[in-house]
Design brief:
The complex is a heterodimer of chains A (174) and B (269). Chain A is an all-alpha fold and 174 residues long. Chain A has a two-stranded antiparallel ribbon. In chain A, strand 1 and strand 2 form a beta hairpin. In chain A, helix 1 runs parallel beside helix 3, helix 3 packs antiparallel against helix 4 and helix 4 packs antiparallel against helix 5. Chain A is globular. Chain B is of the alpha+beta class. Chain B folds into two domains: 30 residues; 167 residues, Thrombin, subunit H. Classes of the chains: A mainly alpha (174), B alpha+beta (269). Chains A and B meet through helix 1, strand 1, helix 3, helix 4 and helix 5 of A and helix 1, helix 2 and helix 3 of B.
Chain lengths: 174, 269
C-alpha cells in the first residue's frame, strides 16, 4: 500500500473511533417504546479497507477497532465480536458484488468503485449483518428477538443515513 | 500441515478471535466488569472526562436556572426546619446525619440492557460500594465499585438492579425492576392485590434498605392491573426524569446503613 493511503486508513481508524466513542455514543437515546436513535459508524473503517486486504488482516483490524469501541461502551468483547464477524463476511459480499472487469488492485470499496447506489448496497448488507450480530451478542439470548430486531432496524436506518451523508460529502464523484 | 494452515488459517483466526471476544463478554458480563473498568479503562475514561469538561459548557445556562430554582426551594425548606427544630431542640445527636457527596456523572448510557454510569468521585471522597446515588429529580443507581478517583454506578436501568419502592400515602411497597426496552418505564413487583392502586399514584423510595433516603420521588404509576389468578399487581411506573440528562448527582452516605448491615450480618451468624 502506498504511504499516503496508509495514513488515510490510520487517521480514519482514530477519527471513527473517537467520533463513535465520544459523540455518537452520547447522542444515542431511545424515545418511548418504539423509536430508537442510535448511530453506529465505526464499521465503516472495515468496509473501506482496500479490496485486496487479506481476510486475516481484516479480522485483526476489525478486532482492534471493536475493542477500542468497547472501551468507550464499557462492553468488553461485544463490539469486537460483531466487527470480527463483519470483517469475516466482507470478502463474501465483495465477491458477490464484483464488477465484470474485476476490482483494480489498490481500490477501496467506495463510491468510486461501486457508484453511490452500489456502495449503499454494499455497506447496507454489511451494516445489517453487523448490527444484528451486535445486538444479539449484547442481549446474549434470542429471547428478546423482537427487541433485537427493533433495535437493529432503527440503528440501521439512522446509521445508513449517516453513511449516505458522509459518502456524499467526503468522496469525490466519478 | 502447512497446506491445512493456508486453507483454513483465516477460518481458524476468525474462530480464535470470536472465542476471545465471547470469553470477554461472558467473563465481564457481571459485576467483574468493574475490574475491566479500573484497569483497562483508564485510557478511555481520561479522554471522556476531558471531552465532558468541554461539552458540559453547552447547556450551562439551563442547568444554572435549574440550580437556582433548587436553591430557592432548599432555602425555604431550611427555614421551615429551623423553626421546627427550635420547637424540639432536644436531641443534639448528629452522628446519624446523612451526608451527600456531590459528583458528576459521565459515560452514561441508556441503550444497553446493563447500563453503568461512571462518577468523578471515588474512595478519596468517601464513596463506598453499596451507597445510593440520586440526583435532584430522583434515583440514579447504586455504587458497585470504586477506585481512588472514580466510582462505577449500577444504573437503575440495569436488568439486575432491584430498588425498594413504596406507594406514597398508601403504605404498600414493592421492588422496582427494569424489564421494558423503554428507559423511562420500570416495573413495580409484589404490590399485593388488596391495595387500591391507580394510575397517577406516586412511587417514592421506601427507605427500607437504607441505601436511599426515604421519600425520594421516583415516578408515577401509568398502568396497574392484577392478572387473572395472581395475588400481585403488574405495575408500570414512568420515571419522572430523563435518564439521558443525568449529570449532577449526589452519593448518599448514610452512616446508619453500615451499622444496620453490620447488625444484620451478626444476627445471621
Amino acid at each position: 500500500m502506498n504511504p499516503t493511503l496508509l495514513i488515510v486508513h490510520i487517521v480514519r481508524f482514530f477519527v471513527l473511533l473517537l467520533f463513535q466513542g465520544l459523540i455518537l455514543k452520547q447522542m444515542s437515546i431511545g424515545w418511548g417504546d418504539v423509536v430508537y436513535w442510535n448511530v453506529i459508524l465505526y464499521p465503516l473503517f472495515v468496509l473501506l479497507l482496500p479490496v485486496r486486504t487479506s481476510t486475516w488482516q481484516l479480522l485483526l483490524l476489525g478486532f482492534a477497532m471493536g475493542l477500542g469501541v468497547d472501551l468507550f461502551y464499557d462492553s468488553p468483547g461485544v463490539h469486537a465480536s460483531a466487527l470480527v464477524f463483519t470483517a469475516f463476511v466482507r470478502p463474501l459480499v465483495l465477491r458477490l458484488m464484483e464488477p465484470r472487469e474485476g476490482y483494480s488492485l489498490s481500490a477501496s470499496p467506495s463510491r468510486v468503485v461501486f457508484g453511490f447506489q452500489g456502495f449503499m448496497q454494499y455497506s447496507g448488507i454489511l451494516m445489517l449483518v453487523h448490527l444484528f450480530f451486535y445486538f444479539s451478542v449484547e442481549a446474549f439470548t434470542f429471547v428478546y428477538l423482537l427487541d433485537i430486531l427493533q433495535k437493529t432496524f432503527f440503528s440501521f436506518l439512522f446509521s445508513m443515513a449517516f453513511i449516505a451523508m458522509i459518502t456524499l460529502i467526503f468522496s469525490a464523484s466519478k | 500441515m502447512s497446506q491445512l494452515l493456508i486453507r483454513y488459517g483465516t477460518l481458524l483466526l476468525f474462530l480464535l478471535l470470536e472465542s476471545a471476544c465471547f470469553y470477554m463478554v461472558i467473563r465481564y458480563n457481571s459485576d467483574q466488569r468493574s475490574i475491566f473498568t479500573s484497569s483497562a479503562k483508564r485510557f478511555s475514561t481520561g479522554i471522556q472526562e476531558r471531552y465532558y469538561n468541554v461539552s458540559s459548557y453547552i447547556g450551562l445556562r439551563e442547568k444554572m436556572d435549574h440550580m437556582q430554582a433548587e436553591k430557592a426551594a432548599l432555602k425555604a425548606e431550611l427555614e421551615t426546619l429551623r423553626v421546627q427544630y427550635a420547637d424540639v431542640s432536644g436531641s443534639q445527636d448528629t452522628s446519624f446525619a446523612v451526608r451527600m457527596i456531590p459528583a458528576r456523572a459521565f459515560n452514561k448510557s441508556t441503550l444497553g440492557n446493563y447500563n453503568w454510569i461512571t462518577l468523578d468521585k471515588g474512595e478519596k471522597d468517601g464513596v463506598k460500594p453499596g451507597m445510593g446515588v440520586i440526583n435532584d429529580d430522583g434515583i440514579v443507581g447504586i455504587v458497585r465499585g470504586v477506585s481512588a478517583h472514580y466510582a462505577l454506578v449500577m444504573s437503575v436501568l440495569h436488568r439486575d438492579t432491584r430498588i425498594s419502592g413504596a406507594v406514597l400515602h398508601k403504605g404498600s411497597h414493592g421492588l422496582l425492576v427494569w424489564r421494558s426496552s423503554d428507559p423511562r418505564v420500570l416495573d413495580l413487583d409484589y404490590i399485593p392485590k388488596h391495595v387500591v392502586l391507580e394510575p397517577g399514584d406516586t412511587i417514592v423510595s421506601s427507605g427500607y434498605s437504607n441505601i436511599f433516603p426515604e421519600g425520594i420521588r421516583i415516578g408515577m404509576v401509568i398502568s396497574s392491573e392484577v392478572p387473572q389468578g395472581q395475588n400481585f399487581y403488574e405495575v408500570k411506573v414512568k420515571l419522572d426524569y430523563d435518564f439521558f440528562k443525568v449529570d449532577d448527582v449526589y452519593v448518599v452516605d448514610n452512616p446508619a446503613r453500615e451499622e444496620i448491615s453490620r447488625l444484620e450480618a451478626s444476627m445471621q451468624q
